[in-house]
């Protein structure tokens, strides 16, 4: 079952179960996918094309949490945390920091990249291309900096 089909099925299930939080979150994701298809004039069928859209939705909600906390909006904090839980169901499991470290070391050796901070851009670009969709960019950046600084 493709991710698009799973979203539709989960939307129907949430409607039947009267789970408004899940229903609304899934509906927002489906709308974002549809909007992307219209904007780019493409038909997204591959899960690899849909995952970045879901990640973007997740990042938007995660970024907003800090603002809600500062404003003391516990109602919105709770709501967004539920939405984040729902969104995470549709994303593949992220690589652990140890796995990222192994990948960075292997990629650096294969590409013959020197262990100095001048190589940061090259190593990041190569690593992100290989780990696209599997690892969080900020985690990769942290590991690459540690690797290049010799820690």
UniProtKB/TrEMBL annotation:
SUPFAM superfamilies xref list: GatB/YqeY motif
Q: Which Pfam families match?
A: YqeY
Q: Which molecular function GO terms apply here?
A: carbon-nitrogen ligase activity, with glutamine as amido-N-donor
Source domain of life? Bacteria
Q: What is this protein called?
A: GatB/YqeY domain-containing protein
